[in-house]
Structure formats: C-alpha cells, structure tokens
Amino acid sequence: MIESGYSYWEKELYDITYDLIVVGGGLTGQSTAYFFKKNNPKAKVLVVDRGFFPIGASTRNAGFACIGTIGEHIADLEIDSESRLRARIKNRYQGLQLLRGTLGDDAINYEHTGGWEIFTEEAEFTKARDQIGKFNAWMKELIGIESFYKAASYQGKPAISIPSEGMLHPGKMIGKLYELNRSVGVEFRWNTPVLSIDPDQATLQCENDVQLKAYQLVIATNAFTRRLLPDKVIKPGRGFVFVTKPMDEIKWKGTFHFNKGYVYFRNLGEDRILLGGGRNVDQQTEETDQFGINPYIKEYLVNFGNEVMELPQGWEIEQEWSGIMGFTESKTPTLEKAGKNTLVVAGLSGMGVALGMQLGKTAAESVS
Q: Which of 16, 30, 264, 367 is buried deepest, with most CB atoms within 10 A?
C-alpha cells in the first residue's frame, strides 16, 4: 500500500464528488458512462476498472454479432417464459443496431457474413427445422425481418442458415467506445481495484486507501458482481477460446453455432479459425470467475475441430485464452437498484456484444 496522502493540489483535483461513477470498463459500463455524459454534458463522470483494460468478456469473446439460434431459443423456452425470450431477442437485435450505429461498422471491423447453426444428429436438426416457421414469425413481428432462419446444409452437414448474422473485432469495439468517451469528457481510472462499496452513500473504497465518491453509482461488473454485491445472484461462466495457426484451406467462412450455442466458431481472416465454448461438458468446473484453461474442454474442442469441422491434418493452436461471462437463472439481464444511490446492471448471459450497449443506455437513462 502506498501511504502518501494527498497534496494540496491533488486534493483539489481528485477529492471531488462525481455525478456518476461506473464500476466496470467493459461494453456495458462504458456505454452507461457515454450515454449519461451525452445526456448530461456538464456532469462529472468517472469509469473505474481493476485492469489495465477490461478483461472480463468484452474483449475476450468470439466477436459474433448474433441474436440467437433456433436451438438456443428452444432451450431457453425450457427455463423462461415466451414473453421474456421474445423481449430478449428484440433487445439483442436493437442492441446490435445501436452498437453499429454508434461506433460505425468500419471502426469495429464489422462484416456481414451470415451465420449457420450446424447439426451432427438428424433428430436434433429435425427438431429445430420444424420450428423455423414459428421463429420466423417471431422475427417478422419483433424486428421486421422475414425468413430470418432457413433450412440449409454446410460442408455436407444439416444446418439452419442465419443470413442476418455478422462478425466484428471486440478489441476495436471497446477501443472505439473508449475514444468516444474521452471525446465527451468521461474520466477513467484503470488499474484501480475496488475493495468495497457503500451502495447507499455511493462511495467506493479502492486499493491504496483511495476513496471515491459520487451522487450515483452503476455497478457494471457482470460476472464479478458478487465480489462487490454478494446478494446478487449472478453466476459466472468461464469460456475457452483459441485461434489456430494459418492453414492452407479454410472451408468454414462466417459464424457457426453448434449444440444450442455451447460451441461456436468462425473464420479469422482468410487462413485461421477461431473456435470456442464447450463449457457444457464440464459445467460445474466452469462456473468460476477465475481465468484459466480447462484441459478437458480443450481436448473436447480439439476433437471437435478434427472430427466435426475436419480441419486440415496437422493444424495447430496459435493462441488460447479464457473469458468470464455472467449468467442469470433465466438468462434475462439484471438492471435494478442495489441501494439508495446504486444501480447494478449484469447477467448478460453470453450475449454481451448484442445487449451491452443497449443495456448501458438504459442504465444511463435510469440514473439521469
């Protein structure tokens, strides 16, 4: 601990009460800060994050611009109501439009590639295919797109195509949002772990005996929310991702989903594959907020690459990492009061790219 105290000059500069402090510098947190500042140009707004850059899921995901497959929707209807699922689907679509419109497609390397849900079992394909009419009717009603899902095949495997899907660069997404925040005057404190909060007084106790004060707090730490608010039921879920070394032939171009979305992959440029997921094969172990690689899941995905994707013989992994997602029991995000002057927004349940900015905008409007 650094026990320096404040100088006269530092006290005048830093010992202030902010109009809003956001804890968490990922997509949701930065979006909250940006839209609050846009709505309140004279407000003092601060974003606090424990890392050198946000390292939960915002810059560690696969970069899918998607709103869900039929297999996922069928599974979600087993744990939640139809009305809430329909609302989530609409929010995901609107969230992606807001994200692309705010940041710009070029800035985030958005590519409108189309996507596919692939199957290896005929019974599972038939079950999903039989629901195409139902979910296409939903999409027409909710977002105005007809024939959102189509029965198809890809690389000889039964599939459902999703022409409206795309992909983007998560790192550039966060980088562009950071630029926008700085341009409107939002302040940032990176490498500032928060030890505790007082949700009624809207104060943060940070390392090195630093206390930060605000009139309002927003806690946007997703999977790590329970470290600050133990009573909030946000369950962490670790996701494993790897990128291959360059290969001569890439047969898979676009975004791909398998087994209700638990496995996902895409091309990365012209000669690499990004492959991730698989936490369902060891789900209890992966309900952790600790980064790391589960060798059992890694083996499962390598076998998937060999047996299902039929990647070229001798392919190798170039880079691997993990990210931490936050889940609610029903997969509907939480946006609620956590004290007199504190709002918590969390539980994006693996759909952070689609939901993060829209949820942040809603949070900003809730505290304006």
A: 30
Question: Strand pairing of 45-48 and 217-219?
Answer: unpaired
The pLDDT tens digits of the residues spanning 87-131 come to: 999 999 999 999 999 999 999 999 999 999 999 999 999 999 999
SS3 54: coil
**Residue 141 in domain:** no
User: Degrees (nearest 5) of the Cα angle 75, 79, 84?
Assistant: 95
Task: Say what the pLDDT of residue 2 is.
Answer: 57
Residue 236 has pLDDT above 90, yes or no: yes
Q: Give the residue carrying structure tokens 């830093």.
A: 14
DSSP H/E element including 256: strand 255-258
Looking at the structure, tell me whether residues 286 and 242 fall in a common domain: yes
Considering the domain architecture, whether residues 346 and 226 belong to the same structural domain is answered as: yes
Q: Which two tokens stand for residue 31?
A: 């979006």
Give the residue numbers spanning the domain of 190.
17-59+171-230+336-367
- Scan for tokens 């309900």, then name that residue: 287
Nearest to 264 by CA among 55, 76, 115: 115
Residue type, 223: A
Tell me the torsion sign for CA atoms 306, 320, 282, 54.
negative
Amino acid at 366: S
Enter the tokens of residue 180: 């926008």
CATH number at residue 350: 3.50.50.60
Q: What's the pLDDT tens digit per position in 288-329?
A: 999 999 999 999 999 999 999 999 999 999 999 999 999 999
CATH of the domain at 294: 3.30.9.10
- Residue 299, SS3 per DSSP: helix
Query: Once rounded to an integer, what is the mean pLDDT over residues 12-17?
Result: 83
Residue 260: inside a domain: yes
Which tens digits make up the pLDDT trace of 250-276?
999 999 999 999 999 999 999 999 999
Place of tokens 């209890």: 284
Going by their DSSP bridges, the two strands 317-327 and 334-339 should be labelled as unpaired
339 band by pLDDT with thresholds 50, 70 and 90? very high
State how far the Cα of 362 lies from the Cα of 202, in Å rounded to an integer.
19
Indicate whether 212 pLDDT > 90.
yes
